[in-house]
Write a structure and sequence with these properties.
The chain is α+β, with helices and mostly antiparallel strands. The protein has 21 helices and 14 strands. The strands form six sheets. Strands 3-5-4 form a three-stranded antiparallel β-sheet.
Length: 421
């Protein structure tokens, strides 16, 4: 081969290499020079090489591809179409709390919300951890680690039965869980911001090129993925009862538990979702490191039916609507208007002042009698924080389970409903 032929090949290779960062394969082999308008750019004017290949359709305007592109959420290098170079540093789930400061928490997006979420009880699980340490007689551990949270359990080693129990039986219901890390039905839990805000099916992404959708209208099903144990409020609200697991069932939870249909809560029958009543600060946090759930909660029955939309912390519900002299709560998912009725005169009598609303109006609560836990140090159990099996198998048992009229107890100066078990 002659020298000028080798030189020509070398120049061609250099030309292709220089242009590869700005052209797709389609553009490389087209006739004529590449025009400026052929390079995908965002509304900011920044080139976004990701769009040469990625054609997934974004379903909401706030995250339109021409505004944020791909790299705005998933990071990577948008200034090249070289596969390896462009995907270096890419994150699959931008809502993961490990990376969220650089994605959703971008200064142009949701920086304040991201910082608050990390202190929320759904991210720290500090309330559950505290209660378990108390029950197991290990409360002294809190003196050494007063702000103990889920994130710490994956980074440090603690000699604690309570924390081992938490990691193996409770460790999948927190926002720090990496989505898809755990097997089977647990793979759909966790994911940080997208644990609640991300909706859509994998099949739609694969078959229809529909990017998973982000929504502020959190469906009930998202909440119940975690709120279906302990007091089982997410189930009872919908009119579902996890019975003693014998005989037939009306439907099953993803983990195989059997459910029977019962009378739903009146608010569920009216079409209210969890987010219609519970505020953003309650759910996503307000920047305060709370110790227990009762400290974080601000909505109660009186919020709507006595204080006309003002929470016990003085916050005004955002979805209130005044119409024809009447006050309504507007459903965030349905836009349906719900009239805020005042209590009956009997509720306001002096001798009822100590009664919480639920002490009279709650139809029933799940009750697990004879609950106890068995521990076998010889067997292994999946540690849901570490994502692997470790020594120590925990099993829960109960004598029997019922759904019955709610037992009452006194908390401070109020008569309240309790859930035995």
């Amino acid at each position: 081969m002659k020298k000028f032929e080798l030189l020509g090949i070398l120049l061609l290779v250099i030309f292709l290499a220089l242009n590869f960062s700005f052209r797709s394969w389609e553009n490389l082999f087209r006739k004529g020079p590449l025009k400026r308008q052929d390079i995908p750019v965002l509304t900011t004017g920044q080139p976004e090489g990701c769009l040469f290949c990625h054609e997934e359709r974004i379903q909401e305007k706030a995250h339109a591809v021409e505004v944020v592109g791909c790299s705005g959420c998933h990071l990577g290098n948008p200034l090249t179409v070289d596969f390896r170079a462009s995907h270096q540093g890419v994150v699959k789930n931008p809502g993961d709390l490990r990376v969220v400061a650089r994605t959703c928490g971008n200064p142009n997006c949701h920086p304040n919300d991201v910082m608050k979420v990390k202190y929320s009880l759904m991210a720290t699980n500090h309330g559950i951890i505290t209660r378990l340490l108390e029950v197991f007689g290990e409360k002294d551990l809190l003196q050494r680690h007063p702000n103990l949270k889920v994130e710490d359990l994956g980074q440090k080693s603690f000699q604690s039965y309570a924390l081992d129990y938490f990691k193996k039986l409770c460790g999948s219901c927190h926002l720090y869980l990496e989505k898809g890390r755990l097997p089977d039905f647990l793979s759909e839990k966790g994911g940080g911001c997208t644990a609640c805000h991300g909706i859509g099916r994998k099949e739609d992404l694969k078959d229809k090129k529909l990017h998973p959708q982000l929504t502020a209208k959190i469906p009930l099903e998202k909440c119940v993925k975690c709120h279906n144990r302990s007091g089982r409020i997410g189930l009872t609200y919908q009119g579902l009862y996890e019975d003693e697991q014998s005989g037939s069932a009306d439907l099953y939870l993803p983990d195989g538990r059997k459910l029977k249909r019962i009378e739903p809560d009146v608010h569920y029958k009216a079409g209210l979702l969890c987010i219609d009543c519970h505020t953003k600060n309650e759910v996503m946090g307000n920047g305060t490191f709370y110790r227990r759930i009762e400290e974080a909660l601000e909505v109660d029955c009186e919020t709507c039916h006595v204080r006309k939309g003002e929470t016990k912390k003085g916050t005004r519900l955002a979805n209130l609507l005044q119409k024809e002299g009447k006050l309504f709560l507007k459903g965030k998912g349905t836009n349906k208007l719900h009239l805020l009725n005042s209590p009956l005169p009997a509720c306001q009598e002096r001798y009822h002042q100590r009664l919480s609303c639920t002490s009279c109006h709650a139809q029933y609560v799940p009750q697990c009698y004879g609950c106890h836990v068995r521990y076998d140090p010889r067997e292994k159990h999946l540690d849901k924080i570490l994502g692997k099996e470790t020594l120590g198998l925990w099993e829960e048992h109960e004598s029997y389970r019922r759904i019955d009229k709610p037992p009452l107890a006194v908390r401070k100066d109020k008569v309240v409903v309790i859930t035995p078990g």
